[in-house]
Amino acid sequence: MPAKRRESGGGSKVGKAKFAATVETSSERSATASVRRRVEAQRTRLARAGQRAKGDVAATLTVALDGAGALAEHAIGGDELAAKLRLAHLRDVHAALVEGGASAVAQREACVALHAPLVLALLDDGNCAEARTVLEAHPGLALPARHRTIVAFSRALVEFVERHTEAGSDDEAEAREEGEEKEGGKGGAAEELGTAGPAEHALDEALACNPYVGVFLAHLDVYSSLIDPNLAEAALGAVAVDEVNGGGGKGGKAKVARVDDAEDGESSEPHGAYEGSVEEALAYVANGLGPWLDFLEEGVERWVASRLEVRGEVEWPPRRCSASGARFQLAFVQAAAAAAEADEMDDEEGSGEEEGEETDEEERA
To answer: Considering the entire predicted model, what is its pTM?
Structure first.
């Protein structure tokens, strides 16, 4: 498998642009310049800290953790320099975790909290092969509960990319997909769970973590156009950006935050676990959608939809974990209705085309 996916396209930047297309105003340009100044200031500060830490393994790791956390907000916000610098720090943290030195052991919790963010950053940069290496480096790693869905869907995407790459040309892949459709319906949905390949097993594990991410991915085009990116960001904020992204203050230690339930006087009693909720699904979308959008043409929607079909019913309406999560739930329900309508129209068009072909054959006969 190639080391990088669509390197000339800048990883998943095309996908991100599609999800959050905006027209840049003068005030936005000013804000961008302000962000860049802050990123440059962080780069200078971290470079100086790195120089002072030279030769000291523990101090070097502390600088890497600091950089991964300090640059998180701007990197995730789309600043390319911040993303590049942060990725370098995340790699340094991962290397320390793999080596398992005393400094990594002492700061293990902070290092482990950056495992999922590193995988996301690598996929966003188009480095599927390296993302696989990172995922396989720690098979028994005890991840924070709120990172399991991120890692599971990242692994599923890596498997999909590898299989697509091994399939050869686009023509060969298309012929294979057409054969699957004839044998088992849309995307080979007749395939049993037990006879699935590595990619399907990885996706099944991800869907078990959170089926609502799968619902979104199965209708990527519709959901990404109908659900306001700001809403996805709000869902991410519902549990604190730093907790989900492994950011934080000095040392890169993630903040531990509870879901903010209180809104408009509603009860702050929890509505269930964050894991597997619609809030978690949208939080993942806010960070991890771009690489999936890059593979629309390769049939990633159809692939996810087929596994959802095989797995059976998904609890509906989507489960939410907070009182204020009703808006996230509503957005999903509305997008699902639009997706069903789009599917219906596609079926009608397909039926019309088949009838037209039959009429042509009869006339020729």
So the answer is: 0.76
